[in-house]
Amino acid sequence: MDRTRNRPLAGQVAVVAGATRGAGRGIAVELGAAGATVYVTGRSTRHGRSPMNRPETIEETAELVTTTGGSGIALRVDHSRSEDVAALADRVRRDHGRLDVLVNDVWGGDPLTEWDTPFWRLDLGKVQQLWQQAVVTHLLTSQHLVPLMLDQHRGLVVEVTDGTGEGYRGSLGYDLVKTVVNRLAFAMAEELRPQGVTVLAVTPGFLRSEAMLEIFGVTEADWRDGARRDPHFASSETPRFVGRAVAALAADPDIAARAGLVHTSWDLAEEYGLTDVDGRRPHWGRHIAATAP
């Protein structure tokens, strides 16, 4: 695919909520590569870090969007604050009068997730915060921004999740919020289908995010060395892979047929003929099936 010439989203307006890093950044950049104007939102800016305390910023993501051929606009938004999200909706309305694509990728739950801890020992205060951070923010953002799609009777809302809902995710709190995000996509799809707006969920596979690269002690240049620590890492994918899948969905004229379902980066890559930035086409589903005991 010649991505310098193929700009199917030229003229379209997108918001990627939680686009500072990881899947959100990859999705924002690929929507830009497809020609979209992308509002990049999050709490980490060059003027101050979020509680995640990581170096990536929304400004960096917006610049990457513009570099790839789109138009990136960085806006600091705390998606747990209704007034912040309302201001975002007002800005998009003033600038364009409509919204074509909304991606809900707000997370920030890493410090709140207690891995390998039985539920009777979980800190329920952290579970409640995780629910607010990873679920309520998505619903709040959709409440404010979906009305921008209703007048034109079209639009796409993408819920970024982790997993298709099968199998246990290793921590009750994490498992709960990711499963609910899948159900949120289903429920919103049911209500928005008559309005011409499509809602669906998308999951990446083993995501080679900035944080994951650090955990494995590698960079994107030598990431394959991480497989020495965990063989599964050999089947990982960059955030741009799921980004390309979301961009392909946004350009699909038959997108309504996918409403309410959870779609995977690896299956979408095969359907749309996509590859990762290094030319690979990792398939996490086949990898897991082949390595399952």
TrEMBL record:
Superkingdom of origin: Bacteria
Signal peptide (residue range): none
Pfam families reported for this sequence: adh_short
Protein name: NAD(P)-dependent dehydrogenase, short-chain alcohol dehydrogenase family
Naturally occurring in which organism (per UniProt): Geodermatophilus dictyosporus
